[in-house]
Give the backbone structure.
Amino acid sequence: MTTPTEQPTDREEYERMWDELIACRDQLADARLRAMDAANALQLCHNLFPLLALKDEDKAQRICRKGFTSSFALAEKNLSRIIEDSTINHKQNMKPELITIIDIDGIDGQDYPDFCDAFVAEADYDGEPMTEEELEQLNDSTDSRIQSLIRDAILQHSI
């Protein structure tokens, strides 16, 4: 792998570095949106908390409690997703030569030549079965070498 200060050695390496940059930017944008949603939901909880009744709540206080509860749940969901995304053991920079595609699902002849519903259902990486998270990363990859590998497997499977 090249570092940001090194020059790519060929077009393929350049495209791989570009794909990594775009994927990193997209992950950061997703995390930023989730963090902003969580912050907004927590701010709403902060504003509604003083309006909650300890007992004998009236209609307006019930509405505030529902808003507080749903806002808190939204904040918790977004924060959990940020934590989950940061701790998943992704195989960054997958090397196509180490990927063995075992099974492709969702192939529909009507989709030819795009096969937009097809996906890798089972694969090995360096001889080890890939996890669901790794398969998802593989299917979502923007790396042109990996997309080519998947496209070739789809075409071989559909023949």
User: Anything to note?
Assistant: The chain is about 55% helix and 10% strand. The first strand starts at residue 99 and ends at 105. The helical segments are 11-48, 59-87, 132-140, 144-158. The chain has two domains: 11-87, 96-158.
